[in-house]
Design brief:
Shape: globular
Strand order of the largest sheet: 1-9-8-5-4-2-3
Low-confidence stretches: none
Bound molecules: pyridoxal-5'-phosphate
């Protein structure tokens, strides 16, 4: 059995450190916010090369509060991609603004900068590029458009801890960056968690208030806020895990390089890392026109896979009211039909990579053989 992710293997490797950190919180009883969360905010912001970090309860809340800090609300439009996890789009809807989609670049699965201008209207207030799978979007042309048109840029870096664009860290490439610490993420909590990072002191102040009932100080509520606080135990666990993140990221990159090598010429398309990117491979997604059969074949051999994501957001029933139809974002739609995520986690061994690659290659070879047989029949 080769799991898609192996949280147990990671826990075992840091058990003593994590147990001690949790014990520490049990001793102080700082169960929500507190000193561990404050220390983690400072350390993670520094890791992202940003001035401020504000811990929140989920990545979705990070996006919601980032949008509110940028003053997005009813009547506004926010441009993003349909090929993302639903949270990106839901967070826009929470503010009362309207999500407006543009297609992806099929090479990177990220927003196509050339498609943005055509989607801008008088109501457009912001762009949310999603650094999907751990590879940063092509930020320079996005930031150039935003500057020229007076738009805010909010990075959905929920899959991109430690990713880099032209040598600079994801999350601090634009006005505000949003991270998720969902357990399976590259930096994952033992529960839920998220963070907003920014260089903008005013945005930071607003997000800090909004996550804790809009209070400037206890019981002095200056904004209508939320209960989006990060828990103390999560702060303590994440501090421990942050110390290992670079090692884990390099292990992911090594596993990706091994897959690339082993799958070359196999008939499936391997991910393309752009020259400007440090890809952190939250997901290693191959593309194949024969996904269902390949996934079934891998599962039959005990290899778990995932699909991120089978339906682009514009075609999900929940967003039918936006009025989009099939065919409007052909690259996103085709990606949704073809992507297959292979097992990817830092503890994945060279042998496990080889087993997976052999199974993928074996399936492709079988397919060619049966095609040839059908041709001669
Ligand atoms: C691209 C993207 N955006 C937003 C989120 C939302 O994060 P969370 O699950 O922590 O709310 C996730 C992860 O789940 C994600 O992958």
């Amino acid at each position: 059995m080769i799991p898609f992710v192996d949280l147990k293997a990671q826990y075992v490797s840091i058990k003593d450190e994590v147990n001690a950190a949790i014990q520490g919180v049990l001793q102080t009883c700082q169960f929500t916010l507190g000193t561990e969360v404050a220390a983690f905010e400072a350390e993670f912001a520094a890791y992202c090369e940003a001035k401020h970090g504000i811990g929140v309860n989920t990545g979705t809340s990070a996006l919601h509060l980032a949008l509110l800090a940028a003053n997005i609300g009813p009547g506004d439009e926010v441009i993003t991609v349909p090929f993302t996890f639903v949270a990106t789009v839901s967070a826009i809807c929470y503010t009362g603004a309207r999500p407006v989609f543009v297609d992806i670049d099929p090479r990177t699965f990220n927003i196509d900068p050339d498609a943005i201008e055509a989607a801008i209207t008088d109501r457009t207030k912001a762009i949310i590029p999603v650094h999907l799978y751990g590879q940063p979007a092509d930020m320079d042309p996005i930031l150039e458009i935003a500057r020229r048109r007076g738009l805010a840029v909010i990075e959905d870096a929920c899959q991109a801890h430690g990713a880099e664009y032209k040598g600079r860290r994801a999350g601090s490439l634009a006005d505000i960056g949003c991270f998720s610490f969902y357990p399976g993420k590259n930096l994952g909590a033992y529960g839920e968690g998220g963070m907003v990072v920014t260089d903008n002191a005013e945005y930071a102040r607003t997000v800090r208030m909004l996550r804790d009932w809009g209070a400037e100080r206890k019981y002095h509520h200056v904004l209508k806020g939320y209960n989006y606080r990060l828990e103390g135990i999560q702060g303590a666990v994440l501090r421990v895990k942050l110390r290992h993140l670079e090692t884990w990221t390099e292990a992911r990159r090594a596993a990706a390089a091994r897959y690339d090598r082993l799958l070359a010429g196999s008939g499936v398309r391997t991910p393309e890392a752009m020259p400007y990117a440090r890809h952190v491979y939250h997901i290693y997604a191959i593309r194949t026109s024969n996904r269902r059969a390949l996934q079934d074949a891998l599962h039959a051999q005990g290899i778990q896979t995932g699909i991120h994501y089978p339906t682009p957001v514009h075609l999900l029933p929940a967003f039918a009211d936006l009025g989009y139809a099939r065919g409007e974002f052909p690259h996103a739609e085709q990606a949704a039909e073809e992507v297959l995520s292979l097992p990817m986690f830092p503890e994945l061994t060279a042998e496990q990579c080889e087993v997976v690659a052999r199974a993928v290659r074996g399936h492709a070879a079988e397919r060619l053989e049966s095609k040839a047989l059908a041709g001669t029949a």
